Amino acid sequence: MAEDRKKMQLLEKKEKYDNLYLAALPVVTTYLFELKKQWKKFVIFSLVAVSFVILLSYLPYALIPDNPLPDTQADYFQSGLNFLIMIVIFGSCFFFSGIICSEYGDKTGFITFPIINKYKLVTGKFLGALTLMIGVVAAFYITLGVLGIYWYGGPINYRYYYSFGIAILYVLAVGSFVTFLSSFMPNVNITIVSAIMFLLIANMIIDSLVMLLYPEFEPIYSLNHATDLISYILVEDFPTKLEDRYEEVEFRNFSRRIWLTPTIEMGITIFLVYTIVCLVVAAIIFKRRQL
Amino acid sequence: MAIIMKRNRVKKISLGFFILSTILIGLSSTSITAFTTYEPALNKGTVAFIVNQYNEGKWEDTVDRELDPDDFFDGDSDEIGARSKTTIKNVGNYKWDLHDALIFLLDVESFIDEDKLNENETLFLLSFLSKDYVDEVYPEKYYVWEALTVKWDFETEEFDESPDEKALILPIFKNPQDYNDLLEDYNKWTLSVNSTKVFLGKEPFPILDGDDFLWLLITSGIFTIARPFNSYLTTLIDKLDCDDAEVKGNTLILEKKGEEEYTVEVTFSDQGMQSSLVIKNDEGRVIYEIAQDNTDMVVLIVSGVIAASVAGILIVLIIRRKKFRQ
Amino acid sequence: MSKTTMESDKLDMKTDKISSIEPIEKPETGLKTVMRLENLTKKFGNFVAVNNINIEVHEGETIGLIGPNGAGKTTTIKLIAKLIRPTSGEILVLNKAGKLQSLNGDDKDLVKFGFLIDQPFFYDMTAYQILRYFARSQNYPKKKINARLDELLKLFKLADWKHQKVKTFSKGMRQKMGIIQSILVDPQIIILDEPQTGLDPKARLEIRVTIRELQHQGKTIFVASHMLHEISEVCDKIALINNGRIIAFDTIENLEKNLKEKELNCQLLYPIPTSDIEGTINRLNDKLIQYVNHFMEVSTADHNHGVKYNPENQTFKIYYDGKKESRGEILEIFIAEFKSNNKIISFSQPKTSKLEQIYLEMIQMDEPRDGGG
């Protein structure tokens, strides 16, 4: 009797695992397929990332003898990471833009073969694109890190790893934003253009307007503001006081604040809020969107 | 007609010979020039050093009972395993004058013993160090390559993030003979300073000979040479008229007398920086040694080789797979 | 009696005597229903793409959903595929426990479906990579995938292309890829939308052979097409769809027979003046209302299309209820109508009525519509 019960329990457990496996299988398969599908894009963007680092953080120092290296490895990383934002924005636009709209616009996707749950399909695609984009960012960080060792010796400053962690959160936020655009845009190209326009231009305009209208207001809504944390976290004495986190600039009797960085908690929260809001809205639109 | 043709041929041969001669002379003169012209070998980057050996007892018996290595080489240089590093930020062309040398190279300010001088005397001495004064009296300019560096002193622990010296300048005199001119100017300046009433009954600034000057350069930690190193060093000790120094390859060997006689071997790296310093007693036993620490570079090279191998294997696999499919 | 029933609900309400298109309330005992569409309607704004369709599909049947472009075929299939949501109505599908289950719920318990919707486009990968993905994502046994792929690629003559990128494929080859993916994991229900589009005659034949093969394996197949002649020979039954409504559904033989029996031709000696045509038709429609084939009326929505006039051969076509007594009464009405200024020279039932012809005539009676199928 007890043996039967044990057998039953084992069977139930097995069934549970089987169900879990079956539920996860489409996500995993789509994830792996996405990796294969976007592999070339990954190689190209990684090469671009590596080239960016070499072009902007190696050649100017190697070819121009007068051009001084920053004092420390952390300073060097800080200046090199300024260019990461471009890579993340452009990379994310290309990796994430097709996640939803390519399934509708060009019918190139799998949604027209409705053999797997569409949410699982999109989840797999999102995770695949996220992994590849993190890979591109990792290529950037590794190259910059190697150059950091090349110029300054080892070991790599531990705050560089924090910066990498925050950069991953930034990728997640930008990727989610592009996915959100992808959920209602008609095709990939329009999604890419819109995302770039918003992330590069509209964001900047909004920030400038807010700065003009409310000079003392910290732009906690702004992804741009949060990205300052990626490089600013490398500063040895990270500012904890409010007054240390901005610089007051006077221009023709007009005083304005240039925000240097959000606090660590604030920066992480901004990224997470962007991620959650964008993904939730994208999921709602995706649910309602029809082929 | 034939004569004209012959003349033309002679003309052509003469012209060819002339051009060839010009090229050969040009080449030979270039090589002569190259030999006498020095080139900086210093590149941007970081060089680390480590104290490999220190025999405290022997140091006291041989080198100095009063002064420890850290009095010469700063930081924890009297601890085995202590590391220091210098990051070369940039290299540029500049002109130096005696004032620069007094401040940056010879660190004359450190000669002023404020405990033995009152405030007015100190100020008076410092007036001799003012740029206006020095430039007016000693207007000679020296052409240098100047490297801006930051330096971490010898530490047994991990390095602090911020360097101990944020704007250390390494000069490389384009002509090693300039060191001699500098020495002469320094001695003139010192004489003029020492002759003032401030030093009455007190220890004056030292008048240096070539060997002293060379030792001062070595212990300054910023003495750097240009390529070709052997020629540079040989010219330097010749011009400074050093009696106790000799050059072997890239190594400068100094005979010193402390508590006992000892030798100091300073080897210069392929960048012209002091890559090692070995102090030996007269028996040839090492009392103290600072060497270049290449651990980071080894890590970098090993990582590079591993990364290249992995990339290579991947590429080969991809190509083979593609071929297999075809 | 048919194994499968498809109908429009108006038809259900108004028609009671036309056996071939008569709604079947319940399937025959012993036949398992694998899919049922109940009052399925899809509107895009004011446009009704699918209008109150009721379909019941039984296990092992091959159903052809035939209609012109814009008739609502693809919309119906997209509704089944959950690519779009119905405005009203419901789709029930057989689950693994053998019961019908709403498609709105969790689909993990449903029987396996294979779909080919619209013209398939694929990501730019090799055929093998794409098909492997489809197989793996549906938990097809890993060890058997390669053998299955080789088998299907060979069947569709794509074996030599398996490692080529799909972007190098022709339209027809992509179509074949689409069909392969739809049958790859051996699904119980296969739904194909225009499977022969873009294919050459030989490939179209191959598709028909494949469908036959699948029929032998006991699969339930649902094929939508506008190419009646291509599909009809492999289908057990044909459902004609137009303007979002099912206008006829039965076996081909029954459709031909019944539609022929419900048609009369009445030829006049002289043509009716153009100005009188509309008035005459309206008058006749009013008089014939009790005899008119309501199925045809339904299919033509707002128009009185029980009577149709062709000025070229001065012939009226009358779609009636097929009863013998009605035929005589209709003749009397026509004689009364044309006795004064025109003469009836023939009044007969057509000897042959091919499905293709009926289909075309039925379609022509509808207003042209925009939009895809």
Key features?
heterotrimer; A: 291 residues; mainly alpha; two-stranded antiparallel sheet; 10 helices; 73% helix; 4% strand; globular; C: 373 residues; alpha/beta; Rossmann fold; Alpha-Beta Plaits; 6-stranded mixed β-sheet; 12 helices; 15 strands
Could you explain the architecture of this structure?
The complex is a heterotrimer of chains A (291), B (326) and C (373). Chain A is mostly helical and 291 residues long. Chain A has helices spanning 2-37, 39-63, 73-80, 84-96, 98-104, 118-152, 158-184, 188-213, 223-232, 264-288, and strands at residues 246-251, 254-259. Chain A has one domain. Chain A has ten helices and two strands. The mean pLDDT of chain A is 88. Chain B has two domains: 1-36; 37-304, no CATH class. Chain C has twelve helices and 15 strands. By secondary structure, chain C is an alpha/beta fold. Chain C has two domains: 5-253, 3-Layer(aba) Sandwich (Rossmann fold), CATH 3.40.50.300; 258-364, Alpha-Beta Plaits, CATH 3.30.70. The interface between A and C is medium-sized, with 24 and 32 residues.
Give the SSE string of chain B. Answer: HEHHEHHHEEHHHEEEEEH
Strand order of the largest sheet of chain B: 4-3-2-1-9-8-7-6-5
Structural class of the secondary structure composition of chain B?
Answer: alpha+beta
**Order of H and E elements of chain C:** EHEEEHEEEHHHEHEHEEHEHHEEHEH
Instruction: Compute the number of helices of chain B.
Output: 10
- Rounded radius of gyration of chain C (Å): 23 Å
Uncertain stretches of chain B: 27-35
Helix content of chain C: 25-40%
Share in helix of chain B = 40-55%
Terminal Cα separation of chain C, in Å? Answer: 30 Å
Main beta sheet of chain C, described?
Answer: 6 strands, mixed
Q: Which assembly state applies to the chains in this document?
A: heterotrimer
Q: What's the shape of chain B?
A: globular
- Which spans of chain C of ≥5 residues are poorly predicted at pLDDT below 50? 1-29, 295-304, 366-373
Integer tally of domains of chain C: 2
The second-level CATH architecture of the largest domain in chain C is: 3-Layer(aba) Sandwich
Question: What is the tally of beta strands of chain C?
Answer: 15
* Large-scale geometry of chain C: elongated
How many structural domains in the coordinates of chain B? 2
- Text of the CATH class of the largest domain in chain C: Alpha Beta
The span between the termini of chain B is: 72 Å
